[in-house]
From TrEMBL:
It comes from the Bacteria. This is SnoaL-like domain-containing protein. It comes from Microlunatus ginsengisoli.
C-alpha cells in the first residue's frame, strides 16, 4: 500500500520518492508478513533513468523462503516482462552505490 509520494524538480530532472507498506494477512486476519520500503525514482522528460529500492531485504528473503517457490512463465514465455520493461523505460543505470 502506497503511503506517500513526493515529487520535486523540473521536467528535465524530476525526482520521485514513494513510501510504501508491503504486507500479507492470513485468512484468520493475522499478519504473516510486513515490510516497509522506499523507492527513489529519477525521470528526465518523463523517461525513467534511475530506480532505487530500499527495503528490509532480510525480512523479504525470510518471507520468500517460508512461501516457497512461485510458478514462473520463463519456460513458456521467456523473459517477456523484462523485455517489455526495457522497451518501455530503456536501460536503467545502476545507482552510484552499485558502481553505476
Amino acid at each position: 500500500m502506497i503511503e506517500d509520494i513526493l515529487v520535486t524538480g523540473p521536467p528535465w530532472r524530476t525526482r520521485v520518492a514513494i513510501r510504501l507498506h508491503d504486507f500479507a494477512v492470513a485468512g484468520d486476519g493475522t499478519d504473516v508478513y510486513t515490510n516497509r520500503a522506499i523507492a527513489f525514482l529519477e525521470l528526465r522528460w518523463g523517461r525513467l533513468v534511475v530506480w532505487e529500492d530500499y527495503e528490509d531485504t532480510e525480512r523479504s528473503a525470510e518471507w520468500d523462503s517460508r512461501r516457497g517457490p512461485l510458478p514462473t512463465c520463463e519456460r513458456s514465455c521467456g523473459n517477456a516482462a523484462g523485455e517489455a520493461m526495457d522497451r518501455a523505460v530503456g536501460p536503467v543505470r545502476a545507482s552510484p552505490a552499485e558502481g553505476g
